[in-house]
Amino acid sequence: MPLKGIKVLEFVGLAPGPLCGKILTDFGATVTRIDKVLENPLDVLQHGKRTICLDLKNPKGQRLVRQLANKCDVLIEPFRPGVMEKLNLGPTELCKANPRLIYARLTGFGQHGRLAPRAGHDINYAAMSGVLSMLGRRQEKVTAPINLLADFAGGSVVCALGICLALLERHNSGRGQVVDASMVEGAAYVASWLFMSRNLGIWGRERGENLIDGGSYFYDTYETKDGLYMSVGALEPQFFELLKQRLDLPEDLAQFGDEHQERGRKLLSEAFLSKTQAEWSQIFEDVDACVYPVLDYREVHKHDHNRERTSFEVIQDMPAPRPAPLLSRTPGKLPKTSDGSQLDLVDELDLKPHELKDLLDSGVLTLPEKAKL
Questions:
Q1: For 359, phi and psi rounded to 5 degrees?
Q2: What are phi and psi of 43, to 5 degrees?
């Protein structure tokens, strides 16, 4: 896999850090989690990673981190600015000892600036990025897309991109560097097109009244007879005409013009309520009208297209997306267990038997049972 041989230390925090580590794991990196507990029920993204628990306030625990960091390519830390420095584990110290180390810092507001020390969550970071102001229905309050925007897209994915860019640059320079991944800035960067397209004709109205933000009846979702939904994205005229044909809509119904919006939404709502999702899926199966079912996340892996591409695997009775994008020679793959190479990790600690016993007995270090063999 493309990241085979890359060693990563992941300091476990909330969701953004674990997904960043998961991306690296899925594409071949060896990721070691440093957590406060061995079994963390909140971290559902630890498959394939190795885990140890360290008392980071203890100098002996800090020394173990430094030993591991000296042998690592990447370190991911999700704490507020200054926390790692207080633990004597900041980039100044670790990167001096290992000049090839890529030190990734994943935070809400970044490493400097007035808000850098402040607490926050996805909804706050999305709000401060400016993107949240664009999301939501007309005459309704703005709506955050769960925690996908800042935590995962602007946080995890952008941080993983920064790590891969730093690894590529290191190939030329031989030197590591610090990756300052701010979820506010990452969310804004993911939304670059939304910012830079504001002079296009598709905008110009209030939120929820534009072409693709809920203001057009031909770009929306509609409930079906069985309480499920269909997605409609008939933006182009040729797609709209096919939509009209399959729904048997009046010939004089047009896409644009305020006078058509309320009427069109009413007609489409009534039409889709007349049949089930399966029936509508069949009706639109062989035509490019940009109409597709809204698949339930629990059933998405059963769709024939997704089955054909093996887009999902089932892990612990739940669909898990296959690593994306798909590389032709060196694709990523989902690890099947959470154990990882725990025995190799003990060797990497470079501890004599009595030292290992002392650390385990004192509680500075905790290892999974399989790593104690």
A1: -70, -40
A2: -100, 95
* Residue pLDDT, tens place only, 248-285: 999 999 999 888 999 999 999 999 999 999 999 999 99
Query: How far apart are the C-alpha atoms of 278 and 224, rounded to whole Å?
Result: 9
Measured CA to CA, the distance from residue 367 to residue 356 in angstroms comes to 10
Backbone phi, psi, residue 338, to 5°? -100, 0
Beta bridge partners of 104: 76, 179
**Tens digit of each residue's pLDDT (9 = 90 or more) over 318-364:** 899 999 999 999 999 998 765 456 657 778 888 888 999 999 999 99
Q: 3-class DSSP state for residue 159?
A: helix
Q: pLDDT band for position 297 (50/70/90)?
A: very high
Q: Integer distance in angstroms from the first to the last C-alpha of the chain?
A: 29
Is there a catalytic annotation at residue 121? yes
Identified catalytic residue from 121, 260, 303, 358: 121
Known active-site residue 26: no
- Strand ranges, E, within 146-295: 178-182, 219-223, 229-233, 291-293
Q: Could you give the count of Cα atoms lying within 13 Å of 47 in the half-sphere of its Cβ?
A: 15
**Catalytic one of 35, 43, 122, 151:** 151
DSSP H or E stretch at residue 8: strand 7-11
Distance CA 186, CA 109 (A): 10
pTM of the model: 0.93
Q: Report the C-alpha gap between 178 and 299 in whole angstroms.
A: 41
From the list 335, 341, 330, 291, the residue with the least C-alpha distance to 316 is 335
Q: Let me know: does 8 contact 74? Beta carbons within 8 Å.
A: yes
